[in-house]
Specification:
Elements lengths: L2 E5 L5 E5 L5 E8 L2 E4 L20 E2 L5 E2 L3 E4 L2 E4 L8 E2 L12 E5 L3 E8 L10 E9 L4 E10 L3 E2 L3 E2 L16 E4 L1 E4 L26 E2 L6 E6 L8 E4 L5 E7 L3 E5 L15 E5 L14 E2 L5 E11 L2
Antiparallel strand pairs: 1-2, 2-3, 3-4, 5-15, 6-9, 7-8, 10-11, 11-12, 12-13, 13-25, 14-24, 16-18, 16-20, 17-19, 19-22, 20-21, 21-25, 22-23
Amino acid sequence: MNVFHLTNKAGDQLSILERGAAMQHWSTALGNSNRELLLCYPQPEDYGQDCFYLGALVGPYANRISKGRLMIGQRLYQLEQNEGQNQLHGGSSGLHQMNWHVVEQQTSKLVLGCEMADGQGGYPGPVSFRITYQLSDQSILDVLLEASSDVTTLVGPTLHPYFNLSADKASINQHQLCLHAAHYAVVDAQSIPTGQLPKVQGSAMDFSCAKTLNSIRLDHNFVVNGNLHQPAAELISPDGLLRLKVSSDYPGLQVYTGDHLSGPFKSRQGICLEPQFFPDSPNQKGFPFHFTSPGQPFKARIRYQLEKAG
């Protein structure tokens, strides 16, 4: 399996896999040593058996679609149901399973592409995807997601890295989390939104001020500002030496505390901060999303900004 490497003058090293365009490693210089920011398998080949979407680009549409039902115009598409009766992250043959090819490679920039066939996962197509990773000398990782199709289809992918900013990679419980979100999506027992978007203020979902995660379980979508220059989330390492800011022009942010991780990992050993459209948006009145069509190609941006104390 091919592995691509990005570096910068700040001591960051980023490894990207051809499988799933996945973020395998992101280490940064911290004092006299390096610290890994991501939960990762020891070897690239281990990702072939991964069932956690570890670091991968997921889609065509991230998160869940109720009963795998997708209406485009007057036509009903039955998508693959790979999580009970629902679809999760584009199905079992989604973007996370694709082998991506190199379009452009530089020291601090990588562009990968892939083609999804018509009917893959149940989606109309074919669809051409492209992802651009750009690492700055200020420890900012900018990601550009693009897609185009000659037919109208549903696109809304995201990256799925599990972050752990601690030195010992113990659980995320002592990390602090701040979310710049005023509302969140209530979900049912199958993690499908009910359509309700209550305010976070005064609830257990209120992370407007940074607070320690402890044992709080999250697998929820938060309504964020969709502004690339204003963080949707900030994650702070237990020792306070690292702060990771995540921003995007997507309107939603899924926060997942990794409670279902298992061997070779431990439950809650990583946290996912996934910019995206809301889960099940095509089936939810008023939830934001848009179809990708010949006249409207898809484009979304995600930014990870790493800050170091001192």
